[in-house]
Amino acid sequence: MGIFDFFTKEVDRPKDARGKQAAVIGKPINSRESNGGAMQVFHPRSFDDVQKIIETLKANKPAIVYLNTLKKDDAQRALDMLSGAIFALDGGVMPIEKDIYIFTLDGVTLRK
């Protein structure tokens, strides 16, 4: 398994009462419970704001991060740091648009 294979990691989803698979996006289904599950949106102004985003991810809240407000080098550095954090949390990341990313928790599958 390569270091970036976690972006496309498949998880077993439970079946509902009718035998259909549960929704792809929603409440995490693995070991951690969501803390409200509300999607957090961040527009970091400096690399220092990345710590707040990581704390949100550690609190089991998914995040959308707009890196287009940062200088190119700082945006790449922030993406590297956030990718490492979400990997450690067994989550996933997917680009939505140029410089806009969604970071999800363990148990949430992202598909294009």
Structural commentary:
The structure is a single chain. By secondary structure, the chain is an alpha+beta fold. The chain has a domain of 74 residues: SepF-like protein (Translation Initiation Factor IF3). The chain is 23% helix and 16% strand. The protein contains two helices and four strands, in the order βαβαββ. Strands 1-2-4-3 form a four-stranded mixed sheet, covered by helices on one side. β3 and β4 form a beta hairpin. The protein starts with 39 loop residues before the first strand and ends in an 8-residue tail after the last strand. The N terminus is likely disordered.
Q: Report how far the terminal alpha carbons are from each other.
A: 21 Å
Total E-strand runs: 4
Separate helix tally: 2
Can you give the helix content as a percent range? Answer: 10-25%
Q: How do the helices and strands follow one another from N- to C-terminus?
A: EHEHEE
The coarse silhouette is globular
Main beta-sheet strand count, sense and barrel state: 4 strands, mixed
Q: What does the average pLDDT come to?
A: 75
Strand order of the largest sheet: 1-2-4-3
CATH topology of the domain at 1-6 and 40-107: Translation Initiation Factor IF3
Pairing-aware structural class of the strands and helices?
Answer: alpha+beta
Low-confidence stretches: 1-11, 20-35
Beta-strand content estimate: 15-25%
Q: What's the CATH H-level superfamily name of the domain at 1-6 and 40-107?
A: SepF-like protein
> What integer value in Å does the Rg equal?
14 Å
CATH class assignment of the domain at 1-6 and 40-107: Alpha Beta
